[in-house]
Amino acid sequence: MSTTRSRFRTSLLGAATAIALSAASVAGAADTIKVGILHSLSGTMAISETTLKDTMLMLIEEQNKKGGLLGKQLEPVVVDPASNWPLFAEKARELLSQHKVAAIFGNWTSVSRKSVLPVVEELNGLLFYPVQYEGEESSKNVFYTGAAPNQQAIPAVDYLMNEIGVKRWVLAGTDYVYPRTTNKILEAYLKAKGVADKDIMINYTPFGHSDWQSIVSEIKKFGSTGVKTAVVSTINGDANVPFYKELGNQGISAEDIPVVAFSVGEEELSGIDTKPLVGHLAAWNYFMSVDAEPNSEFITAWKAFIKNDKRVTNDPMEAHYIGFNMWVKAVEKAGTTDSDAVQEAIIGIAVPNLTGGLSAMMPNHHITKPVLIGEIQEDGQFVVVWQTSGLVAGDAWSDFLPGSKDIIADWRAPLSCGNYNVKTAKCSGQNYE
Amino acid sequence: MTLIRIFQWLLLVSLCTAATLVNAAAVASDDPLNSAAALLKSSSFKDKSKAVDLLSAHAGEQAGVVLEAFLDNRLYTAKADKRLVIADSRGEAYAVTDALTNEDLGRTAKNSLKIITLNNSLRRQIREALALSDLRHPDADRRLAAVNQLLDRPAAEHAKLLQPLLEQERDARVRDAMQIVTALGALTSDDVRQRLSAIETLEGNVHPAVRNGLAKLQRNAQDPEVLKKIGKVLESIESKLQIYRFIENMFFGLSLGSVLVLAAIGLAITFGVMGVINMAHGELIMIGAYTTYVIQLLLPDNIGASVLIAVPAAFVVSGLVGIAIERGVIRFLYGRSLETLLATFGISLILQQTVRSIFSPLNRSVETPAWMSGSWEINSALSLTLNRLYIIVFALLVFAALYLVLKKTSLGLQVRAVSQNRAMARAMGVRSEWVDAMTFGLGSGIAGVAGVALSQLTNVGPNLGQSYIIDSFMVVVFGGVGNLWGTLVSGMTLGVANKFMEPWSGAVLAKILVLVFIILFIQKRPRGLFPQKGRAAEG
To answer: Which residues on chain A are in Cβ contact (under 8 Å) with B216?
Structure first.
């Protein structure tokens, strides 16, 4: 009941802020810098994206308390693309051409990003994308603050292979672009490491799959050959809960067959019964449980902002934290919010991340991050069991796919290209195939 | 309140100072328990692993207590004095005892304790250590669990360890399990006769460790007699496994079928009997699932009973919502199916958004009671998950109850009368409006009951209903509109067909194939499996 009440209070507060903001914008529209927030507030993705909208509002509020940016106050412009991919493109156009926002922070799914991409490029906007994704893309106008496959999937496989001694692999995913591409990269990587075909099992399921009996029983069979087996899961969102429940019910514990997931974070765990998940793994660049000064400050600020002591923080929130601070620094460095100037200024900028290090923007518009592997605990938090010794730079074009291993991205002059083929010395333009 | 707090705190501090003195004295004595305790406080998992080794070698009773607490996440360090403690949750506070001396340290708040974390390899290590000490436990079940734990990672030294115990063992189940471990050890023996007799012992056993052990020997053995024997034994194991796999698939199919039947059977009434295309049917299921959630919130200490209480509660809540929909909207639209479809679709969106505003867009966590978790292990190759088993039984019970209501009660008689010939039923004095409302309420209530079952299988969130609405219509249309038996048979058929296709076609393709099959089937027999016959079919 208390959540309902606090939610109501939050929405009241939100309404009040909105009114105040619109009043402010009437009073002095020229004196603010507008920041676009493009996250679904309704529909299936609202579960994940609403939190990111709140994170952005908090970051903007804090920046305004510090005196704003270039002497002006920041003004958030929130739109709701309603989990509808074509609507994402329309709303992005509205933000850029109607509201004239200086930068957009938004999107979650890859398909929504692909939908927005032509619009941001056409209108020369700036988009900060905060979610781990499949790579194989680098746009002049997009900054990827989430993990590329080499910052999440590949280190996770390395950990299982070297530390746990896994020899047989199940690659299980939901049937859409991110799992398919990630699994293609992982399969190529595993084969390069000498894993035989018969030791890899690949399985795709539809969105929201809830009957996992036969698949879990297949996994159990696959893993009962006496050789250490692990599941690398790119199963998305809702489908995870019945999957882990079925694993528990069929008696497969994390000690027998560990599952490492790339889409299960603190936020997802907060809505479910975590008992069957204890001991399973997740690979991220940030965990709420990380013991670092900036992290505890961030958590305190978040709980105060959202007025709920039970709310958690997660990896994409950290990505927005990093992305927003990078943009602020780049604008300060360039002295203007002009898109081209910021694009040039932001490369090489380093800001603190929440795990106690510095993250820098690379010339390929990806950032450097540490990679952490955590085990799920009963309270829905993670214990870090392994982490990379240093920071890992995001690789836009995977080195393990035949089509992309010769391609690099570098947005500095004179190259200024998102997909430069080092063999043919050609920039093939924005053709992502 | 604060005074008590301060007093507690003072007590704790004084206890701590006393304890540090004692501790300091103990460390000097180089006791394995103490050195293990020191290692456990380290943040490195390697140190903790060493500590577990020390504790298991030590073999004292207290070491076992510490290990068990560690495994259950009950081992903490007190932040104030760095003492190793075991803490049990007592509501808000924690009851704390010293891990080394078992001394009672009173109660303390959670934030004054820091949990000692463990990872998978430590869990395994502890479980194995505990299993070794449990081999002599007076309780036969504990001994059996210990031997089974050893079976998971067979090793020659386990066989040696069990040999003397085997002779003393009285319990038949434990003896059997022990014999398998020793036989697996004997497989690697140099003596051919011993190997042959070990293979004989293992014949017909379907435990994966047995199959792996035999397969390994098959790759390495040279003796033709041994090879021949292994080939035969492996073959018989394989054919047994085939049968179990078939049974398992059948179970999976029936379980999926029972979920489909549960979701569709309410629709079989509203759509089948009344002819209302109710797009909000999925949301009525969702309301049932949320009712379960609310009841669990109200009865946090009684999860097991809450699910049972939720069944009638969900029936009432969803039934009332259904009656409200029928009285408020649908009754004005009888005979205009397109408008009914659009109106109920609108209602479904309204219900979803309402739930989102009340309960948040995030999924809610509905706990599975202990009696529904886990599985019924028939043997090591075949086990049926309990939650699915209960849901199959539950679906059949709901079906039987509904069948009886329609066939044996006066409400059922009136429902059938109105659905067959409304005008005539009215002429006979049946209050058709009242019957409409009751029928719709009954169908909706059953949807709510389905929601209780689904809350145990899938996510409880605002979108829960959407994922079942298409399947529900599919089942009803395939089974034959207006026929309860048709719904049961078609649900089970679709479930079993889906599960038998899934292993070779994948989950995505299996779903598509089932849909294509139904489209073709409906082309051929538009009235479904069990069409209504006679005059009723005309209306």
So the answer is: 226
